[in-house]
TrEMBL record:
Keywords: Transferase. One of its GO terms (molecular function) is transferase activity. It holds the Pfam family GST_N_2. Residues 8-74 form the GST N-terminal domain. GO terms for cellular component: cytoplasm. This is Glutathione S-transferase. It comes from Shewanella colwelliana.
Amino acid sequence: MQLLVSDASPYARWVRVVVSYYAIADIREIEVNPLENGEQLIQANPLGKIPCLILNDGEALFDSEVILRYLDNQYCKEKLFNAAELRWRHMTQFSLIKGLLDSAVALRQEQMREEEGVRSPFWTSRFEQALLRGLTQIELSSMTCGSEVTIQKMGLCCLLQYLDFRHPDLDWRRVAPATARWLLEFETLDAIEQTKPNR
């Protein structure tokens, strides 16, 4: 199988962390630039977005959640999405992290529009405030408690490191100091170290 990714994409990284953590050996990563609309990516995903998983039969799966659910079903013994006793709380936490990733990436897109002179102060502020509100809620939740490595913790780590990578001026640690302390330990996992963005 082929996993189309971009090094800096937090969505792709969430998938890559799961692949690394569960040692899924039959997936080969292929680096693509989604902004270039390359033929391989467009043929697999007409939306031109990553991550995109091309199965051995040629079928393509896209959207990070779809791919994560596929990996959970096929390789992770359904450990990631099926904590029955806390299912709805966990799914809401998953959706919160996914929404925060959306805000973080949208904020990055606003930054890139600055070179065109069309960056919106309104949308910049809206995305920043959404991120700070969401992280405040995470700080008050039990999401980072316990030693178990969960899909939520993996996604949260990808989010926080993306913020440090792309938005170093966003002072998220001010609203989430306990989450910041948790990150210091969680980010030492091999699967996190091996997938850290570098550009």
